[in-house]
Amino acid sequence: MHQTSPRLSRLIAIGAATFMGLAFAAPHATAGAYDAQFRKFLEREIVPAARAAGVSSGTLSRELSGLTPDTSLPGLTRPGGGGPPKVNYQAEFRAPARYFSDNRFTALVRSGRSLMARHKGTLDAVERRFGVPRRIVLAIWARESGYGSASIPKDALRVVATRAFMGQRPDFFKKETVAALKILDDGHISRREMRSSWGGALGQPQFLPTSFLKYAVDFDGDGKRDIWRSAPDVLASIANYLKDHGWVPGRDWGYEVTVPADISCSREGPDRGQPIAKWVREGIKRVKGRDFPAFELKLPGYLLMPAGRFGPAFIATDNFYVLKEYNESDVYALFVGHLADRYGNDVGFVGNWHPIRTTTRGKVRQLQLSMEKAGHDVGGADGLIGFKTRRSLGIVQQQRGKAPTCWLD
C-alpha cells in the first residue's frame, strides 16, 4: 500500500484521491533520473489545470498513473530549464529547389488521383460544407502524412507531457497536455491509438491537441473525431482548419508568373500587395501566355519569389497565406499549392531553379545579424531566408548599385 502525504489526505477529502494516490506511486526499480520530479510536476501543474478544463478524475487516474518522461525526445532541457530552441547553425541551409523534385511529385500525384476517385463522395461533401477545393485538402494530407501512410510512432500524451516538463516551451506544452487529456476524456480515441510525431502533432493531419479540439471534425458520423483512422474525418478536419483560418472560396492559391527586370524583387511580401490588375499593368504576366481569371484582377495579389531571381516567381493570393497558417514556411505552402495543381496536369514549374551556392544556417544568421545592425528588418536572425530577409537583401543590393536578386550573392 502506498503511503499518503498530508496534502494527499486533504485532496482525498475533497474527492481527488483517485489520481493523486497514483501520482505518488512508488517508482520502479529502473526509474529514470527525472521520474519523481515528473510525478510532482503532473500533480502540481497538470492535474489542477486538467480538472479545471473538465477532465474527469477517472481519466486522470487512468492516463497519468505510471506515466514517465520520454527523455529520448530531441530538444529537451533539464526540468524547468526553458530557454530558446537550440538550433544547429552548422547545418546546411536548404535552398528551395531541393523540395521540388519532379519524381517526388509524380509519385504523390499518382496516389492522390487514386484517392480522389476513391473518396469522391466524401470530397464532394467536404467542398460543399467548407468551400475548400479537394485538391488542396489532398495536398495537405499528402504533405503531412503521405496520405496516412507515414509512421506516427509516439505516445502523444507522453510526448506533450514531457515537453511541458522539460522542453523549451513549457507553458505552450502544458496547454497541449491538458488538451490531450481532454481528447482522451471525451473518448475520441484510446490512449494506445493516440499517436503523434516527436513534436506532439496528432494523426494524419498532424494537429496539435489544442488544434484537434478546435478543428477536428466527425465527418463519418460515428460520434468520434478520429484523425488517425477515418479518412472522412481527416479530410473534413483539414478543410475545417483552412476555412476557419480564412480560406476564400473560389480563389486559387496563386499563379506562376514572369517578373520584368524593372519590378524589384524587394517588393515581395504579404504586406505589399496590390490588385492583380495593377501588377499586370506593370508588366507581370502569367506563364505560357495564360490570362488571369477576370474576377481575380480586382482582388489583391502578392509578389512571391521564394529564391529571389534564382527561381520561379508567383503572384500569390490571400489563400497562399492561409496555407501558411497550417505551416509558416513559404516552401511548405508552395509545395501544397504546386502539388494541388499537379493533380490536374502533372507538369512542373515553367521557371527554373538556378544553382545556388551552398552555405550554412550559421552564415545566413551572421548576415542577418549584420543587416539588422544596419537597420534592416529580416524577420529575425534564424538562419532561414524568409520573405523579409529576401527583400532586405534586394534593398541592400540596390543601395550598392547592383541589380537586386533578393538572394545571397
UniProtKB/TrEMBL annotation:
Keywords: Signal. NCBIfam families: MltB_2 (TIGR02283). Residues 1-25 form the signal peptide. Residues 61-84 are annotated as: Disordered. Residues 44-341 form the Transglycosylase SLT domain. This is Lytic murein transglycosylase.
